[in-house]
Amino acid sequence: MTKKQVGWMVILAIVIFTNIIESMILMPLASTIKADLHMTDNAWGVAISSYLFSAFISGILSIFVIDKFDRKRFLTVFYALFIVGTFLCGIADTYEFLIFARIFAGFFGGIISAVVLAIVGDLIPIAHRGKATGIVMAGFSTAAALGIPLGLFLGLNWNWHMPFFFIVGLSSLAFVLIILVMPSMSGHLEKAKTVKSWNILSRIPKNKNQLKALLFSCLLLFGQFAIIPYLADYVEHNIGFEKKELVWMYFFGGILTFVTNPFIGYLSDRFGQLKIFFIMMTLSCIPILFITSMGENPMPLVLITTSGFFIFAGGRNIPGTALVLSTAAPFERGGFMSIRSALQQLASAIAVLLGSWILTQDATGKYFNFELIGYIAVGTSILSYFILRTIKSDY
Predict the structure, then answer these.
(1) Residue 280 is part of which domain span?
(2) Angstrom distance (rounded) from CA 128 to CA 121
């Protein structure tokens, strides 16, 4: 990769950073927001899943337009509206308005990762795509290492609205970088204009390789989102962390994945995406089983377990995503990644709702049945590997 390509990937990582913080920031502030807006556990599940369902709808609708425009122009428009949605979340003062704001933010924010990954596929040749994906995915881990702890700090020391205003400010800076630095990407337009968007949808059911790529993507995220929305609350009420101590869980997990993600991308290019995915997937099952059945334990042991979850559960996405990117041709890559993003959002929303139905809490806030969620996450992880091994890196 050239220095210019690395610079582009860093900008995209910043975009992903802000997008992921915004989608996750409610989760570590769960108890504060639930108390302030008088929300039940089911209402909390709706607040989280409303973003995901909205993102699913926008992902489906974007299929018809995403490949018809310059990638840079499409990203700037959707990113600008995502910033507006984030601001609306920041000024929400009722449960109903918060749901509206989450739907708005989800509609425009949910498609950003699909556009970003399509750009990665357009700008980076397949030989370096693992490394490029690792850099961009570092935005996820940085969101956990820096964004989530900062969001917790702002939320606990001021109020839960402040993290959203922080994201608005940072996203505005990223927006300027996109306009000034990112290149125009219109090479796919000539071919895309000759292909009707509806044909992309009609071709996928006939393309077993892409069908398996979509199923794989959904299973992988389903297992993670059955756990992530409830992790902070579980660690607080079942394991005994104070609210301010949750910062360390995200900080150490995020810092370690920030370091390991690019390395995992390099290993994927060097030794093969399937082999590295298998290793990451296998290792991820260990902290999943431990963390979902863990009671009160010393903080170092808990942090080792949660950090392992962030490293390996997040790390397996890198080789998996790099391989999935290779199943779509450039002229349809945006549409395909939109479908993938939409279905992932739907799978995540279903996982969140499933978690809200399986989990119960007593009067002290302690969770029960979280270990069942862990078994489901491990099962979907193993199944995803057997599907990935049948996917071919061609279109």
Answers:
(1) 3-388
(2) 10
